[in-house]
């Protein structure tokens, strides 16, 4: 974690970012250069969808942001690694997934790190989050 990131974590979440998160449909754009943004691509094969994962660690504690089941923006098919894609955005503290409705103020359990939770939240807020009317995944499901 850089000094710059620690500085961002000290203040409150920007109200505009909080509104953007609450309006989001839980999908976001995969960064144009996922590896440079800290995401690693994983494809477990079988019936498990591929995903990008960005991990945060502090001692034995961890948090992560996952971009699951990326779909190419141009064709709507499963995205190849690095392709312009839309994916479901999730935040994880340890082994549990934080519900979208609690993302701005997750209920911390013993052993959870508030600092890691905030770092992962900032990573979510760094993404281009989509809203239901403009989300191609939600539009296709309707």
Number of domains: 1
Beta-strand content estimate: 25-35%
Largest sheet: 7 strands, antiparallel
Q: Average pLDDT across residues? A: 88
Oligomer state of the chains in this structure: single chain
Using the CA coordinates, give the radius of gyration. Answer: 15 Å
Percent of residues in helices comes to 10-25%
Describe the structure.
The termini are far apart. A hairpin with a 2-residue loop joins strand 5 (85-93) and strand 6 (96-98). The protein has one domain (3-141). The chain contains 4 helices and 7 strands; from the N terminus they run H-H-E-E-E-E-E-E-H-E-H. Strands 1, 2, 3, 4, 5, 6 and 7 form a 7-stranded antiparallel β-sheet that branches. The chain has helices spanning 3-10, 15-23, 114-125, 136-141, and strands at residues 24-29, 40-42, 51-58, 61-72, 85-93, 96-98, 128-131. It is 25% helix and 32% strand. The radius of gyration is 15 Å and the shape is globular. With 142 residues, it is an alpha+beta fold. Helix 1 (3-10) packs across helix 3.
Give me some keywords for this one.
4 helices, alpha+beta, 25% helix, globular, 32% strand, 142 residues, seven-stranded antiparallel sheet
């Amino acid at each position: 974690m850089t000094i710059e990131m620690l500085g961002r974590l000290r203040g409150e979440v920007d109200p505009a970012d909080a509104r953007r998160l609450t309006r989001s449909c839980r999908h976001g754009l995969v960064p144009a250069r996922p590896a440079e943004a800290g995401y690693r691509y994983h494809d477990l094969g079988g019936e498990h969808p591929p995903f990008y994962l960005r991990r945060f660690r502090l001692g034995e504690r961890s948090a992560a942001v996952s971009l699951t089941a990326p779909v190419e923006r141009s064709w709507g098919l499963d995205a190849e690694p690095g392709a312009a894609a839309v994916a479901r955005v999730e935040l994880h503290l340890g082994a549990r997934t934080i519900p979208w409705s609690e993302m701005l103020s997750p209920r911390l359990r013993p052993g959870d790190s508030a600092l890691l939770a905030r770092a992962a939240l900032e990573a979510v807020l760094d993404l281009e989050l989509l809203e239901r009317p403009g989300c191609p995944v939600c539009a296709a499901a309707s």
